[in-house]
Design goal:
Layout: E1 3-14, E2 17-24, E3 34-35, E4 38-40, H1 49-59, E5 66-75, E6 84-92, E7 103-106, H2 119-134, H3 150-161, H4 167-177, E8 180-187, E9 194-199
Parallel strand pairs: 1-6
Antiparallel strand pairs: 1-2, 1-4, 2-3, 2-7, 5-6, 8-9
Organism: Aeromonas molluscorum 848
InterPro entries: NUDIX_hydrolase-like_dom_sf, WH-like_DNA-bd_sf, WH_DNA-bd_sf, WHD_NrtR
Protein name: MutT/nudix family protein
């Protein structure tokens, strides 16, 4: 029987850079290469795909996090041991998430990392989903933790979409979506105090229009 597994592209936004969760592979094939969080589906233990996903999240200590299925890939080439199929998931966690295994690696430095199997392709699929969906939804909120300022939220969109945003237009869009609740607290630091908000809506809300950069 062809093997079937779950692979997760797990991302966090830390100090204004996207980081990917990887771990070194200990056994062949691709020993000593870096791999994504993954597990084979166990027909005896996993009642359905959600059960398998929850087991994978628990194995990595990812706790409560946002996840969604991106695509299914399968062929004779992705694993030298034979035909295999994987269900690729995108998983977003807060900036302070410390999993029980693996290491955070900056996305900007992945060119120098040797990846196992076809994990470079899987990462590309996850990032593509993140970028496309961030143009029309509140998905980037899942990278910010429980409380955040409007400036931090805007910066998350800018980093993901790789373009500056018009601040006035961005805030109008967010307020019109009616997804945030003011916590009554403020973030203090070098800049003037800024109000802290929390998500007061389901994990991912769709906008009525695409999010555009400042040049639009």
């Amino acid at each position: 029987m062809p093997s079937m597994s779950l692979d997760m592209v797990v991302l966090r936004l830390k100090e204004e850079r996207l980081e990917l969760l990887l771990e070194p592979r200990q056994s062949p094939p691709f020993a000593h290469s870096w791999q994504l969080p993954a597990r084979r589906i166990d027909e005896r233990r996993d009642r359905d795909l959600d059960d398998a996903l929850q087991r994978l999240l628990a194995e990595w200590g990812l706790g409560v996090s946002y996840s969604e299925q991106v695509c299914t890939l399968g062929d004779q080439e992705r694993d030298p041991r034979g035909w295999s199929t994987t269900l690729v998931y995108l998983c977003l966690v807060g900036p302070d998430m410390q999993p029980s295994r693996g290491q955070w690696r900056p996305l900007a430095e992945l060119d120098g990392v040797t990846l196992a199997f076809d994990h470079a392709r899987l990462i590309g699929k996850g990032l593509e989903r993140l970028m496309i969906k961030s143009r029309y939804s509140t998905l980037p909120v899942q990278l910010l933790g429980t409380e955040f300022t409007l400036s931090e939220l805007q910066r998350a969109y800018e980093i993901i979409l790789r373009t500056p945003m018009n601040t006035a237009a961005f805030r109008k869009r967010i307020h019109r979506a009616n997804i945030l609740a003011d916590t009554g607290r403020k973030r203090t630091g070098k800049q003037r105090p800024a109000s802290l908000y929390r998500l007061d809506a389901p994990p991912c809300i769709l906008f009525d229009q695409l999010m555009h950069g400042a040049e639009a």
